[in-house]
Amino acid sequence: MRTRQTMLENRHTRRGPQTPRLTVAVGLIGVLGVGALGGVTAQGAATPYGLKAGKPYDGTRLKFLICCSTAGQFAQLIKLTGEGSEFQRLTGITAQWENTPYESLQQKELVEATTGNTYDVVAWVDAWGEAMKPYLLPLNSRVAADKINLKDYPAAYIEAASDKSGNIIGMPFRGHPLILFYRKDVLSELKLPVPRTWQDVVKTAATIQQRKPGLMGLSTMYGVSAGQNLFSWVSMLWGSGGDILDKAGRPVFNSARGVQATQTYIDILRKNKVTNPAATTFAEPESSAEFMQGRAAMWVGWWWYWAQFADPKAVAPAVLNKVGFAPAPGWAGGTTQNYALVWPVGIFKNSKNPDAAWEFIKYVSNTDIQKRVAANRSIPAEADNTIVTFSGMNDARVNAANGGIPKVGAQALRTARTLPQVRTWAQIQSVLEVGINQMATGRDVKTTLDRMARDVDAIQKRAGIYK
Prior knowledge:
- It comes from Deinococcus petrolearius.
- This is ABC transporter substrate-binding protein.
- InterPro entries: Bact_solute-bd_prot1 (IPR050490), SBP (IPR006059).
- By secondary structure, the chain is of the alpha/beta class.
- It folds into two domains: about 5-175 and about 340-415, Periplasmic binding protein-like II (D-Maltodextrin-Binding Protein, domain 2, 3-Layer(aba) Sandwich); about 175-340 and about 420-460, D-Maltodextrin-Binding Protein, domain 2 (3-Layer(aba) Sandwich).
- Helices cover about 40% and strands about 10% of the residues.
- The protein has 21 helices and seven strands.
- Strands 1, 2, 3, 4, 5, 6 and 7 form a seven-stranded mixed β-sheet that branches.
- Helix 11 (about 230-240) packs across helix 12.
- The protein is globular, with a radius of gyration of 22 Å.
């Protein structure tokens, strides 16, 4: 994925560790069987990908509200669902993918949801979900009728795609765990094991810098950019046993464990000095570039970067074919619960073509289609290891095409969490990311966290989350 995609993926934050509380839609998940083969024709032949036989929606043109057409997965699926595509031949339906800039997407989606009738289908970042879900169709009956196996998806993805009443509102479409990427050659030369905890990461980074002057041990990001500086922080917070909000929606990130985790995150830059001092201005593009260009030995980011790290046109020669990966670090004496990001795709209530829209969703979220896309490396700019089902992540062909990272992602996603599903998240995220940047540039950690907690408390009270 290129620069535009980098902007796409990186504006998302997620939430991580702790004992999973993923109870949404459990009843529905429990009764669904193994994935459907699809409709059956009069002659008894199954229709591919779970699509209805007989082209009942022939001639329908759908509009899909989404961004970032250069993202590899999206670029391939656009070809598979547009004019003259396989999807059109099977269903008679064509899909027009919007290419809204990522920075404008959330606002455009909310405007369309509340006042528009232009689009049929929409994909959203999970943390936006609570503001979007009231305007989208529940899919429970459709999921059940097509015998879609929700157990094949990470529980965090299903939780983020469901409402608080247990209704499935979207199908997981694109999703990522956090991954520790590292230079295999550097760790091998220095006889260092792959770090398993954040504490190990700091020690390993310090050793690398002592023994290989000129190479930063770790690349990080503390700049204010759509919540990107929260990625590693929430991983540390959850792993240490802390959290962002409690069950009532009250801020708890300034607890003793929250302070400890946050201090560790800030110390990477200010005390341990194992990352670029310019990281106070870095977002994901700049942070990942440090690793890709051979200036840093480790980096924690979304797994979709593997396609870039394996692309000879994207990385420095010294880095190519020398990148290893592991689940994002856990916390010493705590847990390893990954932070998962998911884009569900759903149907607007004001769509005039909900049944055709469901055929489209079934196709683009179908495991066989996703495996085909993830295994296709014929066009390097469109290579993309992203896949959202466990069966797809563990598929031999998909792993052979992607160096085995899909299986590592599946491992990480077994205990993954997403960011809080609250309608006030956009305001909360702003408080958190600005506070993280302020601490990275010198503010006291405990004092700043307490002030941030007061600000979040005021946001929640104004919104009526609690009194």
